[in-house]
Amino acid sequence: MLTGKIEKNQLLADDIFEMEIKYSNLSAKPGQFINVVCDGKLLPRPISVCQSKKESFVLVYKVVGEGTKWLSKRIKGSEIRFSPPLGRGFNLDIKNKKIAILGGGMGIAPILSVAQALDKADVFLGYNNDEFLHDKFPNKIYKSFASKGETVIDRFVNSKVGKSYDYVIACGPEGMLKALQQVCKEKNIPGQISIEQHMACGVGACLVCNCQTKHGYKLVCSDGPVFPIEEVVFND
């Protein structure tokens, strides 16, 4: 495990925190995650790297249990332990394409570094209520709010430029990704999606985080979390 120091740990929205950790050259690729040691009594928690800088990196996480609750109470200057970057991230070698990047809920955090690298892409952000991280995207942004009856997929499909995209990148809950997959199938749009899944070990040993694909079952932690959008088989 690696060790860094917390630079900040602040509330962004309802139960959603942003933590910056001082650690040089983590070199996480967009879409990768790390296992964070939250307490000696608990399994490490997998959290996507939101931004990887030269002298620090940023995590955005939601308090959903004892581990993330413990994490939310850490203060500036506290030491924290974590793994090196894990999993397969996004392939950003995408040239001469009109790209749409979609993030829903906590899936917004992993796509920030993607959007910053592909700053000409359009970004669709789906929230329940409170906005977060929207001011850090350098792209043209389209927002939607489930509390107002519009999903991020609705916004994408109904946008004036929606039919002109020829590549998508997305992260979000399964229902969102399943709906996007159907849209892309109908419009013959390729792309990549990052799957959200419960994990235990994070390195492919425990086989807990399996997902069905057209090529058999694969592990989200080691084969993913990023997969071609057409490869994943979602349950009905």
Layout of helices and strands:
Layout: E1 2-13, E2 16-22, E3 33-36, E4 45-52, E5 56-62, H1 66-72, E6 79-82, E7 99-104, H2 108-117, E8 122-127, E9 140-145, H3 152-158, E10 167-171, H4 174-187, E11 191-194, E12 210-213, E13 216-219, E14 226-228
Parallel strand pairs: 7-8, 7-10, 8-9, 10-11
Antiparallel strand pairs: 1-2, 1-6, 2-5, 3-4, 4-5, 11-14, 12-13
Protein described:
With 236 residues, this protein is an alpha/beta fold. It has 4 helices and 14 strands. The strands form 3 sheets. A 6-stranded antiparallel β-sheet has the order 3-4-5-2-1-6. A 6-stranded mixed β-sheet has the order 9-8-7-10-11-14, sandwiched between helices. β4 and β5 form a beta hairpin. It is globular. The termini are far apart. The model has no long low-confidence stretch (mean pLDDT 92).
Kindly list the characteristics that best describe this protein.
236 residues; alpha/beta; six-stranded antiparallel sheet; six-stranded mixed sheet; 4 helices; 16% helix; 34% strand; globular
> What is the overall shape?
globular
Order of helices and strands: EEEEEHEEHEEHEHEEEE
Unreliable stretches covering 5 or more consecutive residues: none
Compute the number of helices. 4
Helix content: 10-25%
Rounded to an integer, what's the Rg over CA atoms? 17 Å
* Widest β-sheet, arrangement of strands: 3-4-5-2-1-6
Secondary structure tally: strands? 14
Distance between the termini: 39 Å
Mean pLDDT, to the nearest integer, reads 92
Structural class: alpha/beta
Largest sheet: 6 strands, antiparallel
Beta-strand content estimate: 25-35%
